[in-house]
# Entry
Amino acid sequence: MDNHYVPNLTIGPMVCQALRQYGIAAPIDVHLMVEPVDRMIGDFIEAGASYITFHPEASRHVDRSLELVKSANVKAGLVLNPATPISCLDYVMDKVDMILVMSINPGFGGQTFIDTTHRKIQAIRALIDDSGRDIRLEVDGGVKVDNIAAIQASGADT
# Structure
């Protein structure tokens, strides 16, 4: 979070790099909520990220941004806000390893899960299944003990 794309600020590539320097071998999943996104992609690649996802609204050229991630042998993905149409996936499904569905408006924790997200998860799961590709489908925001089973039943992996 860069206090521009969303009104909040959080950790940067130095934390990712420090984890690697201290011997952390677990995959590091970086969800970029920054604009412009291409500038930060390179920093997180150098810092040792395993996965990099970003919001299509934060990139002027989504295909190019995905290629930037993939060219470094890092797994790439897109993050869809509640109002982001799934049609943004139409021409890049061959470049994504992960799709992250935001079930809240990004920027702050503690928000309530937006129930219409279930329909979006179902529609994206159908796209993934139809593509025949191994694409992970994740959900972020408002996930709790009382709704996680329904989220999984809608088609999310996590």
The longest helix spans residues 117-131. The helical segments are 13-21, 37-47, 62-70, 117-131, 148-154. Residues 13-154 form a domain with the TIM Barrel fold (CATH 3.20.20.70).
